[in-house]
Design a protein that fits this description.
This protein is α+β, with helices and mostly antiparallel strands. The protein contains three helices and three strands, in the order H-E-E-H-H-E.
Length: 84
Amino acid sequence: AAVTRDALARVEAGETAVRALGFQVFRLRHHGDLARFEFAEAELGRALAEPLKSRVLAAARRVGYFEAEIDPIPYGKPRALTPP
C-alpha cells in the first residue's frame, strides 16, 4: 500500500498520544486499518499491563485505526531470527 499523508498523520498522532502516556522507545506500524505497536524491551511489560494496554489501544482507535495490537516481539529485535 502506498504511504499517504493521511497514514503518516495517523501514525504521528498515535505515537504522540502514546508518548503522552510516558512511553519513550516504541513505534506505531501502519497496516491499513490495523495499528501495530512495537515497544522497546524495557517498556514492553508496562505496555502489556492494564490499564496502560487499554489506553495504548484506545489511542490508536481515536486516531482512526479500526484495530490495534501490541507486538509481543520488542522493538528493534531481529524478526527473522526470533523463534515463533
